[in-house]
Each structure stands twice: as C-alpha cells, then as structure tokens.
Design brief:
The chain is of the alpha+beta class. The protein has ten helices and 15 strands. Helix 9 links the parallel strand 12 and strand 13. Helix 6 crosses helix 9. The chain starts with 24 loop residues before the first strand and ends with a strand.
Length: 317
C-alpha cells in the first residue's frame, strides 16, 4: 500500500544535524513489486541485480532491504563468508558517496565494518574514488557471459562437440518438442524435478539451490512478471526444463535441469532456450552465472567459451 506518512518502506528516519538512521526489512515475495523497478535501473549484466539472483538465494544470503531517498539498499552477507554482513551495490538516485556516508553511520551504530560484496568490475572505480580500506576480488564468483548468437547456433570449430551432442539428440529422439512452462504443465515439471532429486541429499549450497528451485516452481505463476521458462519433451516425457529472466539485452539462465539419460538433452535445451529468447526478445548476451568454485561446473561453463567473465569484488571501508 502506498503511503507517505509513515514511508511505504517503513524507513525510520531521524535527523540530528547530520545524523540519519535507516531501517532494513526482510526481503520476501511481497517486496518484489517494490524492488523490481530499482533492479531494472542497475544497468549491469550481473545476475546479482536480477529477481532470480536475489530470490533464489534470499535466505542463504539473508537479504534485507531499505528504500531510502529513492535508492534501493540491500543488506545481506558477503558472498565468500556468510558470517560477515555486507551490502549490495545501491541502485537509485542517491550518489554513491552519500550512501556510503549514511551506511558508515549505520554500521558504526551496529558495531560492524562497512563492506560491500559482489561489486562488479565496471563499478569498482566509483568505489576506489571514495578511498576504501581494501578491495579484494571474489575469484570464484565471476559471471560467465556468452554471445547469444553463438549459443543459439553453436557455430565454429570450437563448438563442434556441442553440435555433435545436439545432432545426436535430434537423431535419437525425433519426437522431441519444446513448450513454454505454464499452468498446464507446471505440475509435470515439479514431478520431473522431484524425480531428479530422489538420490540427492539436500546439503550445502547445492542442496539449498535444489530447495529454492522447488520453491520457485511452486510459486511460478507469482513470478510471472520476471520469470519464464521452457520444457523439453521427448514424446510425452520431460527430458529437461530451464527458467530464465531478461534484463536489458541480457538473458539470465537461473535454473537448468536435465535427465541425463537422454543423451544430448542438456546441450539441446541450452541452445533451444537461447533460440527461443532471440525470437521473442532483443537480447545479445547470455549470463549463465558463476561456478561457485565447483571444478565440474567451471569446466562445463568454460566449454561454451564465454565472451567474458564478469569479475566481482568485495569493498571494505
């Protein structure tokens, strides 16, 4: 509900000369309509400023938010250490220097250092100009960014193995087809995912990601303003599904799940999803997110030859 007194964001604001206080509130699904307009202003290809990037990891990173002077400030924990409080890049009208000054006061009151986490390389110079005490790269949290046309065609000698996998899938399963995820098949997608997880234990980050995928599927219709997906069928059987989000001209692939008993299904749905999006949206790049330092995931992402790795940093004052 939009109100002016008190503020819709329940900011606790008081002034004593230069002193100000801001109050953070837990991010929930009901916060989506408030933060989405700000996320669209980020101007970054990073997955950290997307609905999926936040809501898939909302509890893991303990996200809270405040909207102060038309600026979104998200508080959570550092990407490389969940024991340390950290803030995301502020998005909105306030100059970065003003936000830093306000958060310095806030952190002093809380008895914690001021740290920003996952600041992308294109914004790091702005932070350097404010004389932080340290800047350190998050070596395992770079986003893998790909050329959309290259993923859609798998053209070139470097992609020969990928094309071979796709061609094998097409030849082996001529009755395959693609359909959008919608109310008619979402229950089948949930059941498919549950079958994939039968032999897996829900521990660590991988377990958390699986649980969040279940949550997203359960509430899929509620995220319709941000998410969309496709299902790969072989006959009447699901072989894979994927879910993504568009920001600017970037497709962010948040979820991709495959039954690997269908040879080539993973390569096929990867390609098909980008083809699907190129037909419907004005995209030029694809963000397949980070590898979290997992060697197998790193190798898989590198095998598609990214255009760039979007580096991220922690910044401490």
């Amino acid at each position: 509900m939009l109100r002016t007194k008190p503020s819709i964001y329940k900011e606790s604001i008081y002034m004593n000369n230069t002193r100000q206080s801001i109050k953070f509130h837990r991010l929930t699904f009901n916060s989506l309509s408030l933060i989405l307009p700000y996320l669209k202003q980020s101007g970054s290809r990073s997955c950290d400023y997307t609905v999926g990037g936040i809501y898939m990891w909302i509890d893991y990173f303990k996200y809270h938010y405040c909207i102060f002077r038309n600026t979104l400030i998200i508080k959570g924990v550092a990407e490389d250490d969940v024991k340390r409080t950290a803030f995301s890049l502020p998005i909105g009208k306030m100059p970065l220097a003003d936000v830093v000054d306000i958060l310095k006061e806030y952190c002093a009151d809380e008895g914690i250092p001021l740290e920003f986490s996952a600041i992308t390389e294109e914004r790091i110079d702005e932070f350097k100009a404010l004389c932080p005490s340290s800047i350190s790269e998050l070596s395992h949290w770079s986003d893998y960014i790909y050329n959309a046309d290259k993923l859609a065609t798998l053209a070139g000698n470097k992609m020969k193995k990928k094309r071979n996998h796709v061609n094998k899938f097409i030849a082996t399963y001529p009755d395959h087809h693609i359909a959008p995820i919608n109310k008619d098949n979402i229950e089948d997608v949930k059941a498919f995912f549950d079958r994939l997880c039968l032999t897996k234990t829900d521990n660590g980050m991988a377990g958390y990601e699986r649980n969040q995928t279940r949550r997203i599927l359960h509430d899929f219709s509620r995220y319709a303003s941000a998410f969309f997906g496709i299902v790969l069928y072989v006959g009447n059987e699901i072989a894979a599904f994927t879910i993504g989000e568009i920001t600017g001209t970037t497709l962010h692939v948040h979820i991709e799940k495959t039954d690997h008993s269908f040879a080539g299904a993973n390569e096929f749905i990867n390609m098909a999803f980008v083809q699907h999006c190129l037909k419907l949206y004005n995209i030029d790049m694809v963000n397949r997110e980070d590898d979290a330092g997992e060697p197998g995931l790193q190798q898989a992402k590198l095998s598609y030859y990214p255009e760039l790795l979007l580096r991220k940093f922690n910044v401490t004052f």
